[in-house]
Design goal:
Largest sheet: 15 strands, parallel
Number of strands: 51
Helix content: under 10%
Distance between the termini: 40 Å
Strand order of the largest sheet: 1-4-9-12-15-18-21-24-27-30-33-36-39-42-44
Structural class: mainly beta
Length: about 575
């Protein structure tokens, strides 16, 4: 895929990985490479290094099998460009294999257990920093770093300042096996992955940069509090950063809860992949301040926020969706920019026997999508629905018009109901500002919005919605009277209000309360979406925009806003 912004790969902007913060190894205390390119000598010397610190000098180390790290161990080099651990071409004849997968260059928890089998032994307190893991085209490594069943000491997990696994300021590159991962984490608790570079991971197939998952059948089949931030992922064949579980939403025993993906740069992902994906039960998570040239997908996950991301593809890219929100509940997408190259800017999809309910689209800008700016589509059989959607602010403009769907600003397909749109600019679209097709769409409000420069204002391709509220819009010429039914006669949403201080201190909890309504959804400017009053901790100074969306018994919705300055 052609690069969108040169600065992405140069590490410029808010999502850039910062320079390494690892203290260079002292030549008096560090381990120097042996020079043996076959890999047995360096591997043995690294694993026999005594003490909790394995400090590697500058130079190139060769390994012919996995480095196993014990509890409380730090593996530290002199810097990602200085200390290189390279996979030897030939693997040890006695190398172990767990299941049918390939080996990891560094393993945090699994240990050999007899001939050809492995057991997982949690190894908290592990740090890996200041080095490069180079697969160098060798066929045996499938993972740069692999950690399973790590960090859990009880059936609960919390984020701490001393994570059980901390991977930072490293490079992983050159893994060529199918479905390779730069860093793979499963059933882990309290992990930080930050300021790393993951490059050239199975770029022609299903490679993944950083992956979080769960494994049923273990003592704890969950991953929680994984913080993925300030990384660069470039040139992977499948997905850049992914959270995926085998079970799906509504299964508390198999979730990957509280996954944060913040300020990463993801480029050159395979055309059929996602830059960032939360798939199946990645609940109470958030994706914010990332820069990507491939899309974001959130599917079957609850309480997720997608915030302040930029998805920018070149005009001739084959990407399908900028932001996909599928079969999920209580999701916020706020202040994102989807800029060119995609077929659909933001797609809200219901299917797989699951509805979409309570979704807030706040101040998102969609530019130059090929076919549809905002696409709301439930399944063609009408078994699932999209309901209680609030869209406010932002723009949908210059939708160019593709071969299939005509370049519409907003498209409602099949069962879409209780949709309130307010303060949106739907301008200069090649097709209609709003179109409707399929089985049924009803209870639609379009208010205080600008709908100019489109080829058509609205196009009801089937029976018009029975309930439409159309007020205070700018259509260029006088708007037609589209009011219909109860929503047209009586507009009576809740009047939400926010109780919250105007200032706060980074790292300290802040209380927030809102007025009551049938359903509420909070966007607090950071962290996951919330559905109840509580407290929030802002991670760094800045000005944050807080939005409370409230739905009434009749499905009509309104919002309140608040600004908080954090020092």
């Amino acid at each position: 895929m052609v690069l969108v912004l040169t600065g992405l790969l140069l590490g410029q902007g808010s999502g850039a990985a910062t320079p390494a913060r690892v203290t260079a190894a002292s030549q008096d205390s560090c381990l120097a490479p042996s020079g043996d390119t076959l890999g047995a000598t360096d591997l043995t010397r690294i694993e026999r290094r005594s003490g909790s610190l394995i400090e590697l000098c500058a130079g190139t180390f060769h390994i012919n099998d996995t480095i196993d790290l014990d509890q409380g161990t730090t593996l530290r080099g002199a810097g990602r460009d200085a200390t290189i651990i390279r996979a030897a071409v030939l693997r040890s004849a006695t190398g172990r294999v767990c299941g049918i997968e390939g080996a990891a260059m560094v393993e945090v928890n699994e240990r050999p257990d007899g001939d050809g089998s492995c057991v997982a032994a949690p190894a908290p307190g592990v740090e890996i920093a200041g080095l490069t893991l180079d697969g160098d085209g060798a066929s045996w490594p499938q993972f740069g770093i692999n950690s399973w069943n790590n960090g859990w000491s009880a059936d609960s997990c919390a984020a701490t300042s001393d994570p059980t696994l901390h991977v930072h300021d490293i490079t992983v590159r050159g893994l060529s096996r199918s479905w390779s991962h730069g860093i793979r984490l499963g059933n882990v608790c309290d992990v930080v992955v930050e300021r790393n570079e993951i490059r050239a991971i199975d770029p022609n197939d299903g490679g993944e940069g950083i992956g979080v998952t769960t494994l049923p059948g273990s003592a704890v089949s969950r991953s929680e509090h994984v913080r993925i931030r300030d990384n660069i992922v470039d040139g992977v064949g499948g997905r850049g950063i992914v959270c995926a579980t085998p079970s799906g939403a509504n299964d508390p025993d198999h979730t990957a809860r509280a996954i944060s993906v913040r300020s990463n740069v993801v480029t050159n992902v395979g055309d059929d992949g996602w830059g960032i994906e939360l798939y199946h039960g990645c609940d109470d998570s958030f994706v914010e301040d990332n820069r990507l040239d491939q899309g974001i997908s959130v599917v079957e996950s609850l309480g997720v926020a997608v915030r302040r991301n930029t998805v920018a593809q070149p005009q001739d890219a084959s990407g399908f969706v900028g932001i996909e929100l599928g079969t999920s509940r209580d999701v916020v997408a706020a202040d994102n920019v989807v800029d060119s190259g995609v077929n659909h800017g933001i797609a809200v999809l219901a299917g797989s026997e699951r509805d979409v309910e309570r979704l807030a689209l706040l101040r998102n800008d969609v530019r130059a999508a090929r076919e549809i700016g905002l696409w709301f589509k439930s399944d063609d059989a009408g078994q699932q629905r999209i309901s209680h959607i609030f869209a406010e602010g932002g723009t949908v403009d210059s939708t160019r018009g593709g071969l299939l769907l005509g370049g519409h600003g907003v498209a409602l397909w099949n069962v879409v109901e209780n949709l309130t749109m307010t303060g949106i600019a739907l301008t200069d679209n090649a097709g209609s500002a709003i179109t409707h097709a399929g089985i049924a769409a009803d209870r639609l409000a379009v208010r205080h919005s600008t709908l100019t420069g489109n080829s058509d204002l609205v196009d009801w391709r089937t029976t018009p919605p029975a309930n439409v509220n159309w007020e205070h819009n700018d259509c260029g010429d006088p708007c037609p009277d589209l009011d219909a039914g109860e929503w047209g006669e009586r507009w009576s949403p809740p009047k939400p209000s926010i109780s919250m201080p105007a200032t706060a201190v980074a790292g300290e909890p802040v209380s927030y309360r809102g007025s009551k309504a049938r359903h509420v959804l909070w966007d607090l400017g950071t962290g996951p979406a919330r559905t109840a009053d509580g407290t929030v901790v802002y991670p760094k100074p800045g000005v944050y925009r807080v939005t409370l969306v409230a739905w009434g018994e009749n499905g009509q919705a309104a919002s309140a806003e608040h600004t908080i300055t954090v020092s």
